[in-house]
Amino acid sequence: MSDYGYQCEWCDGVVLEKILPREIFRHSRGFVILEDAPVGVCIKCGHKYYGAKILRRVEEIAMNRDKAKRTERIPVAHATHS
User: Fold this and answer.
1) In 4-63, which residue ranges form alpha helices assigned H by DSSP?
2) Is the model's pTM score more than 0.90?
3) What is the CATH number of the domain that holds 27?
């Protein structure tokens, strides 16, 4: 049985697997970026669905139970220039 091909909960589109080159996840301990992440994406509205395997991977990295390939700095700024 496929994990994909079901109807999107937001529209009447179909959710199919896409391998995203870079997906950013927010975690209570910060952000985790996964590369080449298999994600369910609605072909109509673009809503994303994350499987348990991907979410466990985010948790492993965020909680330092597995080492990340590299660490990147993320700049933070106000939306308006003052």
Assistant:
1) 52-62
2) no
3) 3.10.20
